[in-house]
Design a protein that fits this description.
heterodimer; A: 112 residues; mainly beta; 4-stranded antiparallel beta sheet; 0% helix; B: 114 residues; 7-stranded mixed beta sheet; 49% strand
Chain lengths: 112, 114
């Protein structure tokens, strides 16, 4: 069965500095991977998705992620953090039937 | 707003009572999913429908839980004889069947069992 592990439960960065949120996956075949963001009192929103096309995936709000099969990783990055990026981020792998398996989440804090 | 709609947004109930939540998916989506999210955890899959057929149920879904999707449109999730451990955010999502389709999530129903 597929699964994902988010390596950091909390990440704190200063505004204007790079963001790195780490995710490793486990899958017996080429997975479909996603990053979702959840702001307080808001629904989950898709940031980006990898579905076996380009290994570097660009998403909304300047985020991107790189699929690395050799490292079984799908880390989320952004060159420069903004205060509005503060939220909880989930790395997700898709199973059969379009079911999603979520990681435990990483809370991103952005300091001014 | 044509997104996924969930009602109510918040529900406080006494232990032992029954509760029912409603989800209205995006109208052209034929798949509908229920997830549960507890504090500090990612959402966990509960069940999903393709049109009106319930195709899979997680082991997390005890006998006290039942979900329906009559006519393949809106869905309801009922919890009977609620327990304090049922306190969580219940999320609904919808998508097209197949392909690289995105699941769209509602804002959830937060259940508190006192």
């Amino acid at each position: 069965a597929q699964s994902v592990t988010q390596l950091d439960s909390h990440v704190s960065v200063s505004e204007g500095t790079p963001v790195l949120l780490r995710c490793n996956y486990s899958s017996s075949y080429s997975p479909s991977l996603f990053w979702y963001v959840q702001h307080p009192n808001k629904g989950l929103q898709l940031l980006l998705k990898y579905t076996s096309a380009a290994t570097l995936v660009k998403g909304i709000n300047g985020f991107e992620a790189e699929f690395k099969k050799s490292e079984t990783s799908f880390h989320l990055t952004k060159p420069s953090a903004h205060m509005s990026d503060a939220a909880e981020y989930f790395c997700v792998v898709r199973q059969y039937g379009n079911k999603l398996v979520f990681g435990a989440g990483t809370i991103l804090r952005v300091k001014s | 707003d044509t997104g996924v709609s969930q009602n109510p947004r918040h529900k406080i109930t006494k232990r032992g009572q029954n509760v029912t939540f409603r989800c209205d998916p995006i109208s052209e989506h034929n798949r509908l999913y229920w997830y549960r999210q507890t504090l500090g955890q990612g959402p966990e899959f509960l069940t999903y429908f393709q049109n009106e057929a319930q195709l899979e149920k997680s082991r997390l879904l005890s006998d006290r839980f039942s979900a329906e999707r009559p006519k393949g449109s809106f869905s309801t999730l009922e919890i009977q004889r609620t327990e304090q451990g049922d306190s969580a955010m219940y999320l609904c999502a919808s998508s097209y069947r197949g392909g690289d389709t995105e699941a769209f999530f509602g804002q959830g129903t937060r259940l508190t069992v006192v």
